Amino acid sequence: MNNRTITAIATPLGDGALGVIRISGDKAIEIADKVFFPFSKKELCDFEGYQAAYGEVKENDTVLDDAVALVFRAPHSFTGEDTVEISLHGGSLMLKSVLRLILKNGAFLAEAGEFTKRAFLNGKTDLTKAESIMGLISAKSNAELKLSRAAHTGRTFKKIAKIESDLISADASIAAFSDYPDEDIEGLNAENFSKMLSNAKQELREMLSTFDAGKVLREGIDTVIVGKPNVGKSTLMNMLSGTERSIVTEIAGTTRDVIEETVTIGEITLRLADTAGIHKTDDTVESIGVERAKQRIDTAQLCLAVFDCTSQLDEEDLNLLKLLNRENTIIIINKTDLENKIDYSAFEGFRIVEASAKNSVGYKELEKQITEISGTANLSAESVVLMNERQRDCAIRALDGVEEALNALNIGLTMDAVGVCVDDALSALFEMTGKRVTNAVTDEIFRKFCVGK
Ligand code: GDP
Question: What is the whole-number distance in angstroms between the Cα of residue 248 and the centre of ligand 1?
């Protein structure tokens, strides 16, 4: 279906033991035969799928490298097309020179994501699985890898397929009912339709409810640590960081040396913005100004507010407390290895963790509270987690359609009207998996991939 045969280096350019060049398309094997010569003298075009040959890559009579070529026959390959993968020694100069040779012999350089796009267009993968490949490749945490793996094995696709099939049955029943309203056919009644639609609504809601938690696992959570000087903020940072601490970004144009550090607690990465204040121990509400403190607290997804339990709360502690939101703050009562003089009534409605940062006490409880506040505690091994905003947007539109259909049923609109809403929901789901999707959407999705994927 694609007449251009494409090629690209599939492995990172660097000094690796091996590097792989992939060729895919109708002429993949023919082109490979022009550059790769098996020691067995048998040409690749005589190979069956999944067969490999050891031989030499040659340009005219010059041997560029010895290599292994692996032949895949359509449709049994990643792209669904004839494919050859040539494994060479992994230096980037070597790979580039062999790539040039393959291009000279009739292949075209693949565009970003073109291999995966072809896999999708040839029905080898749906969009949710294709998108999970990006997660598999770029995962920065075990949790992200696990989520991407689950999507890659088809968990999201299966869940969507189940909702789709429920909605298709509902749609068919609704159509039958509106065609033969006077027939008393079992199951064809508003009550039953409502039940079918409510199930779909519930499943879509569950799927959407894990989105934020999935995002936290993938991207981490913006966190701010606040508190007066000497309450133990730096010590808390040290407790959290263990060996995982890293300085990850510098924001151009600012004079501060440290803008964001990350620490990992359990499976969650905390992105600690603006830690310069902490290191200088001048991070007080008074010194940074109430407005700025408020801004920092409001823009963070998670706020760890540290208080020293060895003295009663003073005015500055109370001023800080006024700035905190109960929804995203964890109060850390620190130095509990010493006499605790703090009055807990000021913290009513807040999550509280008692800690002794100096002695690494309170870590487990803090991990538990962060897991709860971020919603990741609600994720189970079976959860279907949407991978990106596109999938979320499709799920929201599907849910809107189902809710409108239910509403139309409840207020007694015609069955045709109900059916139109169900169709809208189905269209959104078809778009999510790619069963019905515009070229513009597919182009946009695959453009985000790298060349060679
Ligand atoms: P910051 O100004 O808020 O960053 O506070 P620091 O982390 O620099 O700590 C101030 C002082 O409190 C240091 O002398 C720490 O050793 C001490 N400290 C911090 N956490 C604890 C704790 O849990 N117990 C005790 N006893 N001392 C602590």
Answer: 25
